Amino acid sequence: MSEAGTPVFSVRDLWKVFGPKADRIPGSEYAALPPAELRERTGCTAAVRDVSFDVNKGEVFVVMGLSGSGKSTLVRCLTRLIEPTSGTLAIDGEDVLAMDTTRLRELRRHRAAMVFQHFGLLPHRTVLDNVAYGLEIQGLGKAERRAKAAELVEKVGLAGLENRRPAQLSGGQQQRVGLARALAVDPSVLLFDEPFSALDPLIRREMQDEVVRLHREEGRTMVFITHDLSEALRLGTRIALMRDGGIVQLGTPEEIVGSPADDYVREFVRDVPREQVLTVATAMRPPTSGEGENGPALRPGATVSEAIEAVARSGDPAARVMEDGRLLGVVDHACLLGVVAGAGGGPGTREVTV
Ligand SMILES: Nc1ncnc2c1ncn2[C@@H]1O[C@H](COP(=O)(O)OP(=O)(O)OP(=O)(O)O)[C@@H](O)[C@H]1O
User: Fold this and answer.
1) 22 CA → ligand 1 middle, Å
2) Which residues partner with 313 through β-bridges?
3) What is the CATH code of the structural domain delimited by 274-340?
4) What residue stretches are annotated with the ABC transporter domain (predicted)?
């Protein structure tokens, strides 16, 4: 269990198999077959294949993978929009698979709100009424829900547009309405299913910033599906990288980029500018005697690219990595260039010298 206490979601040995007699697949001789062979021999597709993970309170948990890797199926299983074939699943410690229909409805409406790519806004209602809709379902009085909705409309940057209808908004603005509506019920977790993939790049970036801001300001737990690596790296506290229904690697952006679990992940992250993801805590080396007196001070979480800027500005041969007044290590030109050149992510793997 994490420091944050009970995980928001706790998922163990989860399978979702589509096809005839799907429940005979998990745990059988067929379970380890590659997808094409499984389909050929059984007519089944294992969309989610023996997956286990926790979503911790306050984190942005990104589910990333190529089309067909199982992202949507996995996230839909979390609230049983798709019924898992086998495994266990809990939200805030409560068994989701044991919930009856009333409890499940409550889960989907209040505890785990979903933000979709197609916003599903009510076309004849105004922005304000669309946001208030979730509160109406909750049984709040009219004045109260309009006041709360107005607050949320402002929070997502739509103040002044309260009385427009969805058709009078841009795609990004519609997505903000969807976001405000999901936030209205104050859920313990927000689930995003590729919400920004239909938006143009600039608006998409704006919406990503919005998610980062909401996360920073409210510490809200989020599960975010994307097939876009740069989006995953920008938003994710941790990223689960899926392939053929399984999780090939689960880790922080830095772990995924700096220590890919296998060749598949390595290929996936090949073009990522490593200096923007890897931190000085990874790139640093122990100080030699006399070092550590001078040079700019950086926190361990500073990126290598921030360190390069600091060293270039100060003209010192190295920067110091400090925490609570303690010297943890130093990053000199060789450490920093080693990261840029891709000469390994961790200590002891650098080959580049200057
Ligand atoms: N209802 C279904 N019946 C049969 N197979 C399905 C069904 N839904 C999904 N699949 C299969 O399960 C696999 C995972 O699909 P899923 O939609 O979860 O992937 P995804 O990673 O979300 O893809 P995308 O990014 O394209 O949305 C795919 O091979 C898909 O064809």
Assistant:
1) 15
2) none
3) 3.90.1280.20
4) 33-269
